[in-house]
Specification:
Shape: elongated
Helix content: 25-40%
Distance between the termini: 93 Å
Number of helices: 28
Structural class: alpha/beta
Bound molecules: phosphoenolpyruvate, magnesium ion
Strand content: 15-25%
């Protein structure tokens, strides 16, 4: 049987009809008012691809390296064409059309909604990946059903399954065909408090179709009903500027202004609230747990469009959400995220509640609509004031990050790309939330706190939104004079001005990889396409912006250090070997020495900068292990025309090997050694710095790390080699105290931390002086 009526579907039919249809069938069976409809079963899709003999070709076509964006696009196009161009057997099409004709008068507008069968897979939120079509009629019905099938092979869906290691063959798709509810008013209802689980029903309501509420385009009215007393305890009537309605002529969903006299009118009458509360209690009783329900009112009838368990209630807390750990709100969004008109689903809590937690990576509080960005999306969709929500940021996102009010990532730790760049741009950021891209919805208004690492529902008042710390500080305090120099780290040339304004004594680390990765191509591909000169010019341009800003203060530029997984995302990345563990792989000086052609061009750029008069430039080599690395790098420097005897140059201490071998490196002629504690910590403690699962074990102040640093400083002092720190830990007061006491020559901090580090250094230096005379 190709189709099943919703009346005949139950929740345990998930395999046959998918999660969404199973839930609608269950509600229908419970006697709740669900718009009538039927399901084209998952078996129909499976029989179609198998009988037509396109199944093998389909799964072969999508068996690609999904990091290769061209291959991914081609795979999607091939799969889509296979499904759309293969005719549906007449008898199957006839069965679907016949079912459609039984809805109302046979000419109803229907919603055609994908219902994937994969919701039961662990960690398998297929949120928003499959299509929904609204206001469909007979002429388009079969095409739309097939498009739902084909959406199982969208680029995003293929990419997602590959990432999660799901077999493409393991997911089937059913399609719900259901009468549209041309809603006069609609919204969502939480049958218990969405965060604490208290017996309070919360209803949000706005005019027209539900899309406007769910997408955050409109602030809805909010009603709180105490279930024990059945009294409405709180009513907040919002100014509802917009509504979504069906265009009478085209049948399309369009956005309209709410007429002035209805903007601040209360949406729900007491009677409607009572009806919704009654339905809400029935649903919760039926499922035996609190539900997040979508509803709509049409012609004075209340309809239920979707119901899902609330996944945000903390197990232990009744009114306390602070026990939620990093990324701990891991309830999956079962079913699609946004269906459109009146038929939308989401996870949401009441305004102000903590939805998710991560690591506070860049200070400040910001509010705005969440903008979910995947690697496949065009970044121009990020508007001024949006909050970017993404798995991990990439250098090509920097322009969008500048426009954003805040950044949220699923992955990464305090030293990830997102954390470093956000701090430099002064944009509040929360990283390592685990699941923000799946838990939050595009357009959902959120507030992030880059100190506490929280992501909350709703928009904070302008006064409470807080700028990055250094903007908030008084502008005039005198810079503390310290014997230990305090420098600043810069990764993106755009941050040079902000960095220089801190009054830092120079740049302790200028990472050139952001300049290189933002070219969008691997160095090899960029050189092949544009020539060597162009590559050299790009580096000169980036370094010069910073060197100009600081002249005559020293600027320590580091040769390229990016892991292979970052290169693989660029054009030409397919030629970069896929590595099992890129953090232990082909990066830093080993890549440069193994690929001298690119390394030489970087050194040539530095040499030309010296020729141009930038004598404040210093050269630093990353991820060296021993004197052999140093000698080889020095040879290249010479060959590029840089005299190591005349210029300041040195190495990063980022591996235990380099710390243990520093004496030999000192004898090889380095002028300075700078602690890259981001890496030194990960290699000493065996903790991947970008893996949020082990973030709690990552400790830059671990005695083993401190011992390596302490002994290195001592050896360097014996050999007249300057020492510095340019890892993130240099911004932490306890590390500053340790380093100053041990006699480090300089500390390089993040832009936002420079002023505090200056004060801390001064305090420790004064204490040391006092101690020596007491
Ligand atoms: C470090 O490892 O501490 C460092 C500053 O280098 P990066 O963060 O770029 O690896
Ligand atoms: Mg490093």
């Amino acid at each position: 049987m190709g189709v099943l009526w919703l009346d005949d579907v139950r929740s345990d039919d998930l395999e046959t009809v998918g999660g969404k249809a199973a839930s609608l069938g269950e509600l229908t069976a419970a006697g709740l008012p669900v718009p009538p409809g039927f399901v084209v079963t998952a078996g129909t899709y499976r029989t179609f691809i198998e009988t037509a003999g396109i199944d093998d070709e389909l799964f072969d076509a999508v068996d690609v390296d999904s990091e290769d964006s061209k291959a991914l696009k081609a795979a999607h196009e091939r799969a889509h064409a296979l499904i759309m161009e293969t005719p549906l057997p007449d008898e199957v099409a006839a069965e679907i059309v016949e079912a459609y004709r039984s809805i109302d008068d046979g000419e109803a507008f229907v919603a055609v909604r994908s219902s994937a069968t994969a919701e039961d897979l662990p960690d398998a939120s297929f949120a928003g990946q499959q299509e929904t079509f609204l206001n469909v009629r007979e002429a388009d019905l079969i095409r739309r059903v097939k498009e739902c099938w084909a959406s199982l092979f969208s680029q995003r869906a293929i990419y997602y399954r590959n990432q999660k290691g799901f077999d493409h063959d393991a997911v089937d798709i059913a399609v719900v065909v259901q009468r549209m509810v041309d809603a006069d008013k609609s919204g969502v209802m939480f049958t218990s408090h969405p965060s604490t689980g208290e017996p309070r029903i919360i209803i949000e309501a706005a005019w027209g179709l539900g899309e406007a509420v769910v997408s955050g385009a409109v602030s809805p009215d909010n009603y709180v009903v105490n279930r024990a007393t059945q009294r409405t305890e709180d009513v907040t009537v919002a100014d509802k500027k917009l509504m979504h309605v069906k265009d009478a002529e085209t049948g399309e969903t369009v956005e309209r202004k709410v007429p002035d006299d209805r903007r601040t009118e209360r949406v729900l009458s007491d009677e409607e609230i009572a009806r919704l509360v009654d339905l809400g209690e029935q649903v919760e009783t039926h499922y035996g747990q609190p539900q997040d329900v979508e509803w709509a009112v049409f012609d004075d009838e209340v309809y239920m469009l979707q119901s899902r368990p609330i996944t945000t209630i903390s197990d232990t807390a009744v009114s306390n959400v602070s026990d939620v750990g990093v990324g701990a709100t891991d309830g999956d969004v079962a079913g699609e995220a946004t269906d459109g008109a009146g038929e939308t689903t989401r996870d949401q809590t009441a305004v102000g509640e903590v939805l998710l937690r991560g690591l506070g990576a860049s200070p400040g509080i910001a509010s705005g609509p969440a903008r979910i960005v995947t690697k496949l999306d065009h970044l121009d969709q990020v508007a001024e004031g949006d909050i970017i929500v993404t798995e991990m940021t990439m250098p090509d996102m920097v322009p969008a990050m500048k426009r954003a009010a805040g950044i949220v990532t699923d992955e990464g730790g305090m030293t990830s790309h997102a954390a470093i760049v956000s701090r430099e741009l002064g944009v509040p950021a929360v990283v390592g939330s685990s699941s923000a891209t799946r838990q939050l919805e595009d357009g959902q208004p959120i507030t992030i706190d880059g100190d506490k690492g929280t992501i909350r529902e709703g928009v904070e008042s302008k006064e409470k939104q807080r700028q990055p710390v250094e903007d908030a500080r008084p502008k005039t305090p005198v810079k503390p004079m310290t014997a230990t120099e305090v420098k600043v780290n810069v990764s993106i040339p755009e941050a040079a001005e902000r960095a220089a304004a801190t009054g830092a004594d120079g740049v302790g680390l200028l990472r050139i990889e952001h300049m290189v990765l933002s070219l969008g191509k691997t160095p090899e591909r960029f050189i092949a396409d544009n020539g060597e000169r162009a590559y050299v010019d790009e580096i000169i341009e980036g370094v010069r912006t910073v060197a100009d800003e600081f002249y005559p203060r020293p600027v320590r530029a580091r040769t390229l250090d990016a892991p292979s997984d970052e290169f693989r995302q660029l054009q030409g990345g397919e030629d970069v070997p896929r590595e099992h563990n890129p953090m232990l792989g082909y990066r830093g000086i080993r890549r440069s020495l193994g690929n001298p052609r690119v390394f030489k061009l970087e050194l040539e750029a530095f040499r030309r900068l010296y020729d141009m008069g930038y004598d404040n430039l210093e050269v630093m080599f990353p991820l060296v292990n021993d004197a052999e690395d140093v000698v080889r790098a020095r040879k290249h420097m010479r060959e590029a025309g840089i005299d190591p005897g005349k210029r300041e140059w040195g190495v990063m201490i980022e591996t235990p090997a380099s710390a243990l071998q520093v004496e030999a490196m000192a004898k090889a002629g380095i002028d300075f050694a700078s602690f890259g504690t981001n890496d030194l910590t990960q290699y000493t403690l065996a903790v991947d710095r970008n893996n949020e699962n082990v973030a709690s074990v990552y400790d830059e102040l671990h005695p083993a790390v401190l011992e390596l640093i302490g002994s290195t400083i001592e050896t360097c002092r014996d050999h007249g080699v300057e020492t510095s720190i340019c890892g993130q830990a240099g911004s932490k007061p306890r590390m500053v105290q340790f380093l100053v006491e041990r006699g480090i020559s300089s500390i390089s901090a993040n832009i936002d931390a420079v002023r505090d580090v200056q004060h801390e250094v001064k305090r420790v230096e004064q204490k040391l002086l006092l101690d020596s005379v007491r």
